[in-house]
Amino acid sequence: MKWTEQQIPRQDGRLAVITGANTGLGFETARRLAERGAAVVLAVRDTEKGKLAAARIHGDVSVQELDLTSLESVRAAAADLRATHPRIDLLINNAGVMYTPKQTTRDGFEMQFGTNHLGHFALTGLLLDLLLPVPGSRVVTVSSTGHRIRAAIHFDDLQWERTYSRAAAYGQSKLANLMFTYELQRRLAAHGTTTAVAAHPGVSNTELARNTPPVARRLITWLAPVITQPATAGALPTLRAATDPSVLGGQYYGPDGLAERRGHPRLVTSSPDSYDLTVQQRLWAVSEDLTGVRFPVGRATTTA
Question: What is the mean pLDDT of residues 75-79?
Answer without folding.
Answer: 98
